[in-house]
Amino acid sequence: MKKSKTIIGGEPLPNIPWEDKPKGCIDVIWRYSGNPILDWNPIPKAARIFNSAVLPYKDEFVGVFRADQRNGRATLFFGKSKDGLKWKIGPDPIDWVNEKGKPNQISYGYDPRFLKLDDAYYIVWCDDMHGASIGLGRTTDFKTFIRMPNPLMPFNRNGVLFPRKVNGKYILLSRPSDSAHTPFGDIYMSESPDLIYWGNHRHVMSRGGSGWWQGTKIGAGPTPIETTEGWLLLYHGVSFTCNGFVYSFGAVILDIDKPWKVLYRTRDYLLTPEKLYEVTGFVPNVTFPCANIYDAETGRIAIYYGAADTCTALAFAQVDELLDYIKKNSEVF
Ligand code: BMA
Hints:
Distance between the termini: 37 Å
Helix content: under 10%
Number of helices: 2
Number of strands: 22
Bound molecules: beta-D-mannopyranose
Structural class: mainly beta
Strand content: 35-45%
Order of helices and strands: EEEEEEEEEEEEEEEEEEEHEEEH
Strand order of the largest sheet: 6-10-9-8-7
């Protein structure tokens, strides 16, 4: 097995879900042959589970799932898995409390990101703050979930926390938006000394470039991975067609110490809706990555993405190959 020393600070994850790249595949991200791993009506209380985030925990896996219930409302469920493929989710939505342990439920929640930061597990999601904004919460035991103050005001989506402080500050990416199906959007960055007060906002990257796939809007994807080449960040890019939006994804390498600085950015998409479960469903033509777990030893990356706002799917990449591809097929604008 090829060893990689490219991922910094990560743990080995020998049980990462994995499939070798199929022979003849020319892509740097390839799909799991067993996709989708969660299909229509996966649990009694959810019609569709997609755009969800998972993490390794001890020898198993835990996840925070975007589950759209049968009343159409998006909410967040917690789940566990022994292998990262078959999940036991719910049966009920996460029961949020405030810092004093009193109920503090969310009215809706979607597109969670999930990460270990310092001594806790944090969840960032799109929350209702009299309009869509960024929600933040934490847990240490996956039983008590504490809702924290909203880091940013409406309207905003696609909040993504870095897995460590940079220059002594917590870093949050976000995508200021409108209250509907936003027809624009760039990625911004904010910093905080304590995960409560956020400021020093910076623009990171814009939609557009020569790739029409990211011409309408872009949004940060899973938690960035620290590598010897910089922060590896997957992001989604959206194009606007006669039939509506199409969500693909690409990747960017950000400077380690100045993470608002884009070093390399994919010109072409890395994955776009092609498979039946990506091009048909509740919202056709959506591939939306929310998690990337990795084995720091081998450099294997497993990417969890939502397909057509209906299913959860899995794809794979090898960190050295992916970084090399991004550097050789980059445009920065
Ligand atoms: C975005 C978010 C995503 C969704 C996408 C396509 O605005 O709501 O959750 O996957 O639209 O519907």
